[in-house]
């Protein structure tokens, strides 16, 4: 095939390679001059709006803004002929929706899910599932000052630096309202994991500020324990102290952070892959992409650094069914980036909500120093609604291997791993079953 160069002549082979190099050199020179001319600007020039999808075989893509017409998710990779009702999704959305109690944002949204595609007569078709939740209670006028001044520690300034434009009202994509799509997608992933592997996921508030919950039995804690109070802590005494702490902070116009812990039970051994596709790496990405998340731990986490190797190691033993188990679980159910069949234990740290009713120093979009007092309706503590988001993050992360409210990362990640490595035929806790006796071993082929 002839190649037409800059001179208009046709040529091929070595001449073609030289001509391509000349093009690249010319392009580089133009880009260098352009970069020099724009060196005084404060905004990056590569501004594609990427990063709205998570997962591979099981993939969620969220969309919509906090004060737009609605928010939602497109879920791809769901197998056909799986039972899925609107109520399966709505139940989880109800747990993360605003206006549930005095310690969360008073924004009054029904968060009613509409399944637009991929499900017919409550059965999945194997095609992409689109879910829409319409916004009903926006108050965009509360954000008029944000068009001029940046909220400290919010995404206002960085969105402006990257895109040169942002959704002022409600924070747009940086709002926690984006997590509606994660929770809906995670609900589907959780259904898949439960149906094919019996996986159970329980998330709860482990700490609010300096108020910590009593130690939890990871084998016995239930969803009903968590839902028995408005702060979603698993024991009543700790919950009362946490609620009092949030109330104290809320009345001053301030906010407070804390830690959410998630337990995943009946996890099959073998989820995850070495090096870059480690299970905890995918889970960390799912959880750390949630709004306000600032830290992630598996098992002993940072506390494990205070132990010696002998103290930290989980000794093995053979249980009554001939399975290899661990006496302790400081590994948090993951070793070498691969699940070992024990409970997966995760913790995510959430910072205090950025938008507060306190006067703070800031700057305007034009670069002038100013002061700002946050307006609008915001969570004094994100943790009660972060529990359902984190729980949805786990199913998504586990599905994706292979985002506030529910561990979406583990669900999506686990589902992806499940489909890729086990072809959606998972059996729980079968790791390293007792090897067959010599008499049961298959005969070796002879030549």
Automatic annotation (TrEMBL):
Any one Gene Ontology molecular-function term assigned to this protein's record: chorismate synthase activity
GO biological process, one term: chorismate biosynthetic process
Cofactor comment text: Reduced FMN (FMNH(2)).
CDD domains from the UniProt entry: Chorismate_synthase
Cofactor: FMNH2
Pathway assignment: Metabolic intermediate biosynthesis; chorismate biosynthesis; chorismate from D-erythrose 4-phosphate and phosphoenolpyruvate: step 7/7
GO cellular component terms listed in the entry, alphabetical order: cytosol
InterPro entries the record matches: Chorismate_synth, Chorismate_synth_AroC_sf, Chorismate_synthase_CS
Keywords carried by this UniProt record: Amino-acid biosynthesis, Aromatic amino acid biosynthesis, Lyase
Enzymatic class: lyase
HAMAP family in the cross-refs: Chorismate_synth
Function statement: Catalyzes the last common step of the biosynthesis of aromatic amino acids, produced via the shikimic acid pathway.
Protein name: Chorismate synthase
Organism of provenance: Porphyridium purpureum (Red alga)
């Amino acid at each position: 095939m002839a190649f037409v160069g800059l001179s208009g002549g046709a040529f091929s082979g070595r001449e073609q390679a030289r001509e391509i190099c000349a093009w690249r050199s010319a392009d580089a020179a133009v880009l260098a001059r352009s970069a020099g001319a724009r060196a005084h600007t404060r905004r990056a020039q590569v501004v594609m709006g990427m990063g709205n999808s998570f997962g591979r075989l099981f993939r969620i893509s969220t969309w919509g803004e906090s004060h737009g017409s609605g928010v939602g998710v497109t879920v791809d990779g769901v197998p056909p002929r799986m039972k899925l009702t609107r109520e399966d999704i709505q139940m989880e959305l109800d747990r993360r929706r605003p206006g549930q109690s005095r310690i969360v944002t008073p924004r009054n949204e029904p968060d009613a899910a509409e399944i637009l595609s991929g499900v017919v007569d409550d059965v999945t078709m194997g095609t992409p599932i689109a879910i829409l939740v319409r916004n009903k209670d926006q108050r965009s006028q509360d954000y008029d000052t944000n068009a001029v001044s940046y909220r400290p520690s919010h995404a206002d300034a960085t969105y402006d630096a990257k895109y040169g434009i942002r959704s002022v009202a409600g924070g747009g994509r940086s709002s926690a309202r984006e997590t509606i799509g994660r929770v809906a997608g995670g609900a589907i992933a959780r259904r898949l994991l439960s149906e094919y592997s019996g996986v159970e996921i329980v998330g709860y508030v482990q700490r609010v500020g300096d108020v910590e919950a009593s130690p939890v039995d990871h084998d016995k804690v239930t969803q009903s324990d968590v839902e028995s109070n408005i702060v979603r802590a698993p024991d009543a005494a700790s919950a009362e102290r946490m609620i009092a702490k949030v109330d104290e902070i809320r009345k001053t116009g301030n906010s407070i952070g804390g830690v959410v812990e998630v337990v995943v039970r009946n996890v099959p051994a073998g989820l995850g892959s070495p090096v870059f596709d480690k299970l905890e790496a995918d889970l960390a990405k799912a959880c750390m992409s949630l709004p306000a998340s600032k830290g992630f731990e598996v098992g002993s986490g940072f506390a494990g650094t205070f132990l010696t190797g002998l103290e930290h190691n989980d000794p093995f033993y053979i249980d009554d069914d001939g399975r290899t188990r661990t006496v302790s679980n400081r590994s948090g159910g993951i070793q070498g980036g691969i699940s070992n069949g024990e409970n997966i234990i995760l913790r995510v740290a959430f910072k205090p909500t950025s938008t507060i009713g306190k006067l703070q120093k800031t700057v305007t979009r034009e670069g002038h120093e100013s002061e700002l007092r946050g307006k609008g309706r915001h969570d004094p503590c994100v943790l009660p609604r972060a529990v359902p988001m984190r729980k949805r993050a786990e199913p998504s992360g586990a599905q994706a291997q292979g985002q506030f409210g529910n561990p979406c990362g583990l669900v999506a990640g686990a589902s992806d791993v499940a489909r890729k490595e086990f072809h959606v035929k998972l059996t729980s806790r079968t790791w390293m079953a007792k090897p067959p006796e010599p008499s049961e071993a298959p005969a070796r082929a002879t030549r």
